[in-house]
Amino acid sequence: MFLDGSHRNLGWAVRVVKRKPSPGGLTTLDVTTSDAALTTSLLMLDKHRLFVMSEGESFVFAWASGYQNGREIRIQGVLAAG
């Protein structure tokens, strides 16, 4: 499940994969979804707060940006402290 900074439900993904940490310290997720509303929301992210809950893992981004990466959406951002 994906929630925006106001805790509004943005939708569900079929798959969320956390990539290996990048040298710049950004956390990167590859998201696979058939939910058109979620796709639109994630592609419009530009340094926005984002909450992600997926298969027992949670990510709270202080800010995240999204872009198309082939058939997936790549989310990159900085996790919130604490």
Explain what this protein looks like in three dimensions:
- This protein is mainly beta and 82 residues long.
- It has one domain (2-79).
- It is built from one helix and seven strands.
- The protein has a seven-stranded antiparallel sheet with strand order 2-1-5-6-7-4-3.
- The mean pLDDT is 95.
Topology:
Layout: E1 2-4, E2 9-11, E3 15-18, E4 27-32, H1 36-43, E5 48-54, E6 57-69, E7 72-79
Antiparallel strand pairs: 1-2, 1-5, 3-4, 4-7, 5-6, 6-7
Structural class call reads mainly beta
Kindly report the spatial arrangement of strands forming the biggest sheet: 2-1-5-6-7-4-3
Name the helix and strand elements from N-terminus to C-terminus, one letter apiece: EEEEHEEE
Rg on CA atoms, Å? 11 Å
Number of contiguous helices: 1
Shape: globular
The CA-CA distance between the termini, in Å, is: 21 Å
Short overview:
This protein is mostly beta strands.
Quick tags:
82 residues; mainly beta; 7-stranded antiparallel β-sheet; globular
